[in-house]
Amino acid sequence: MDKKERIRDLIDQINELNYHYYTLDKPLISDGEYDKLYDELKNLEEETGIVDKFSPTQRVGGVILDKFEKHYHISRLYSQDKSQNYEDLKEWINRCERLRQNYNNTHEDKLKKLEFITEYKFDGLTINLTYNDGVLQTAATRGNGIVGENVLEQVLTISSIPTKIDEKSLIEVQAEAVMPLSSLKKYNEENEVPLKNARNAAAGAIRNLDTSQTKKRNLKAYFYQIPTNELSFETEEEMLKFLEKQKLPVYPYYNLIDNFDDLVKEIERIKVQRHKIDILTDGVVIKINDIKTQKVLGYTNKFPRWSIAFKYDPEEYTTILEDVLWNVGRTGKVTPSAIVKPVDFSGVTVRRATLNNYDDIERKKLRIGSKVFIRRSNDVIPEILGVVDENQKNTKKIEKPSRCPFCNSELIEGNVHIYCPNSISCTPQLKARLVHFASREAMDIDGLSERTAELFIKNLNINEIYDLYDIGYEDLIKLESFKEKKTNNLLNAIENSKECDLSNFTYAIGIPNVGVKTANDLANKFRTFNNLRNAKEDELIEIEDIGEKTASYIIDFFNDHNISKSIDILLSKGIKIKEIDKGIKSDLLKNKNIVITGSIDNYKRNDLKKLIENNLGNVTSSVSKNTDLVLCGQKPGSKRDKAIELGIEILESEDLLDFIEKLEENYE
């Protein structure tokens, strides 16, 4: 695999991992494994100079779920740069000091000597609250940093959060929603289905549509940042005291430190102290205290340069490997999952651990009955590091399966993985394919969950993807938990999916090595599905980031007789794939930064965004001095006021519609 293709592969892998971690709150691997992939990608990007705008190194992470309304943050919310050793921390301090000195060498208004403020790094779910005229207006998750999920009703169940404050100006305040460990313990004692850990419990509660369930988890929130405000603070400490004055809960610990040695002492002290508090914490957040210095240092595309999180080493324990179960995924890949003797990690009982493949088992010399090192990084699925003693008495070899554990088909060997070739009637494969096909990035069939897919396979004789489009009202209404409203909603979602973009359909059919970005590239290159399915290798490798390996996967996929037949049947069910226009992009908006605010009749925000980008404009989320134009629809909110204040051109009413019409005329 060449470097360009490896970058593409890593981007797809990490984006998938980010989706499970940030959106579904169901991490697939340990943080240690994730960091290795992330660091490999970052190093390759630096080495080759290839940095894709969809790369996770350029994003905060996170996809918006359709079950909540979208909320556009007034100011972008950033992620947190991380350090796990004192060498990295020292390097960060030195970098901040160099930037401070460079500024002081060229400016009369000197920056103060660096002083740091330390806070606990709690492990929960970030929420962003907006107060205006002293009243709580909105509450949202961070999402991708620009757009989050509206969770106001869920946040209102957190009794410590005030609905009114004394401050009357418009402010956004950022907090971490957490479930105290004592609440987690009590909940698990009183409920049949225990919660796995405090972080997932908090995230799941905030994302639960049933607010009575949110309330049951007895969440707390601790505030630590004000992304948007019309106020003026000189220090981070002053800002925290302002939050306290507004009765917005601030955890009763923060400390001012002005040198590296004392920072190390404080980090070591908290390392011990954190096990004595009732909130799950995995590190220390260190910020420059002086606000002016923060503004001068600014931000990268992902992190504030003036802040870093020092994360403690993952906890490791020993336990016994009791069994290995084999699971089958969407592509037929058969992967092992370790069952271990229950071990307690900071109040969370762990019974499973991740294994990559049979080579991983052999490399780590694992056997049934082995005493193993197990590590749990930042509350994600634990990993087995290896055996404690290679002299393993009273243990049993882990046999490599030769037949599928679900359909009994003979397995075939890949490079490092084994596969079940029975894509027709192997239930786990079909279930995973159905869920993938229905996902938001694919055909966007809202309501087709894993549980629903299981019901379809078991009760409706669904054997192929195309069978979805033969399901009727009488089929659904008899299924468990399906009432009239749910039935009609799912039927409507299935029907609406028949009209789809080429990129969505390309991703939905599950071509190996083709993620969302590659599907979009293929759609833009070939413009029709017929062109794509008849593509030649030399045409495919003309696309940036598609190498010979991926090209061969695509060609083999469409040349497979069974797959081709299934696609033809699927298309015969009324699927209408929108072709991509052959128009040449207009440069009418070249290098222009444009903000969209409010709702505009007959235009979806994504459609407007594409239209602006097709005219070489750039859509941004917030109004600033760099904004060239603001498009104002109905109920525009504070962005219109900010544009007036900064003297930025605003288009609304008839002028706005004329402008959109002109954009459409220029893209023909």
Automatic annotation (TrEMBL):
<feature type="binding site">
    <location>
        <begin position="31"/>
        <end position="35"/>
    </location>
    <ligand>
        <name>NAD(+)</name>
    </ligand>
</feature>
<dbReference type="GO" id="GO:0003677">
    <property type="term" value="F:DNA binding"/>
</dbReference>
<comment type="function">
    <text>DNA ligase that catalyzes the formation of phosphodiester linkages between 5'-phosphoryl and 3'-hydroxyl groups in double-stranded DNA using NAD as a coenzyme and as the energy source for the reaction. It is essential for DNA replication and repair of damaged DNA.</text>
</comment>
<dbReference type="Pfam" id="PF00533">
    <property type="entry name" value="BRCT"/>
</dbReference>
<dbReference type="GO" id="GO:0005829">
    <property type="term" value="C:cytosol"/>
</dbReference>
<feature type="binding site">
    <location>
        <position position="311"/>
    </location>
    <ligand>
        <name>NAD(+)</name>
    </ligand>
</feature>
<dbReference type="InterPro" id="IPR003583">
    <property type="entry name" value="Hlx-hairpin-Hlx_DNA-bd_motif"/>
</dbReference>
<protein>
    <recommendedName>
        <fullName>DNA ligase</fullName>
        <ecNumber>6.5.1.2</ecNumber>
    </recommendedName>
</protein>
<keyword id="KW-0460">Magnesium</keyword>
<dbReference type="InterPro" id="IPR001357">
    <property type="entry name" value="BRCT_dom"/>
</dbReference>
<comment type="similarity">
    <text>Belongs to the NAD-dependent DNA ligase family. LigA subfamily.</text>
</comment>
<dbReference type="InterPro" id="IPR001679">
    <property type="entry name" value="DNA_ligase"/>
</dbReference>
<dbReference type="InterPro" id="IPR036420">
    <property type="entry name" value="BRCT_dom_sf"/>
</dbReference>
<keyword id="KW-0234">DNA repair</keyword>
<keyword id="KW-0235">DNA replication</keyword>
<dbReference type="Pfam" id="PF01653">
    <property type="entry name" value="DNA_ligase_aden"/>
</dbReference>
<feature type="binding site">
    <location>
        <position position="142"/>
    </location>
    <ligand>
        <name>NAD(+)</name>
    </ligand>
</feature>
<dbReference type="InterPro" id="IPR010994">
    <property type="entry name" value="RuvA_2-like"/>
</dbReference>
<feature type="binding site">
    <location>
        <begin position="79"/>
        <end position="80"/>
    </location>
    <ligand>
        <name>NAD(+)</name>
    </ligand>
</feature>
<dbReference type="Pfam" id="PF03120">
    <property type="entry name" value="OB_DNA_ligase"/>
</dbReference>
<feature type="binding site">
    <location>
        <position position="407"/>
    </location>
    <ligand>
        <name>Zn(2+)</name>
    </ligand>
</feature>
<feature type="binding site">
    <location>
        <position position="420"/>
    </location>
    <ligand>
        <name>Zn(2+)</name>
    </ligand>
</feature>
<keyword id="KW-0862">Zinc</keyword>
<dbReference type="GO" id="GO:0006260">
    <property type="term" value="P:DNA replication"/>
</dbReference>
<dbReference type="InterPro" id="IPR013840">
    <property type="entry name" value="DNAligase_N"/>
</dbReference>
<dbReference type="GO" id="GO:0003911">
    <property type="term" value="F:DNA ligase (NAD+) activity"/>
</dbReference>
<feature type="binding site">
    <location>
        <position position="176"/>
    </location>
    <ligand>
        <name>NAD(+)</name>
    </ligand>
</feature>
<keyword id="KW-0464">Manganese</keyword>
<dbReference type="Pfam" id="PF12826">
    <property type="entry name" value="HHH_2"/>
</dbReference>
<feature type="active site" description="N6-AMP-lysine intermediate">
    <location>
        <position position="121"/>
    </location>
</feature>
<dbReference type="InterPro" id="IPR012340">
    <property type="entry name" value="NA-bd_OB-fold"/>
</dbReference>
<keyword id="KW-0479">Metal-binding</keyword>
<keyword id="KW-0520">NAD</keyword>
<dbReference type="InterPro" id="IPR041663">
    <property type="entry name" value="DisA/LigA_HHH"/>
</dbReference>
<dbReference type="InterPro" id="IPR004150">
    <property type="entry name" value="NAD_DNA_ligase_OB"/>
</dbReference>
<feature type="domain" description="BRCT">
    <location>
        <begin position="584"/>
        <end position="662"/>
    </location>
</feature>
<feature type="binding site">
    <location>
        <position position="426"/>
    </location>
    <ligand>
        <name>Zn(2+)</name>
    </ligand>
</feature>
<feature type="binding site">
    <location>
        <position position="119"/>
    </location>
    <ligand>
        <name>NAD(+)</name>
    </ligand>
</feature>
<dbReference type="GO" id="GO:0006281">
    <property type="term" value="P:DNA repair"/>
</dbReference>
<feature type="binding site">
    <location>
        <position position="287"/>
    </location>
    <ligand>
        <name>NAD(+)</name>
    </ligand>
</feature>
<keyword id="KW-0436">Ligase</keyword>
<dbReference type="GO" id="GO:0046872">
    <property type="term" value="F:metal ion binding"/>
</dbReference>
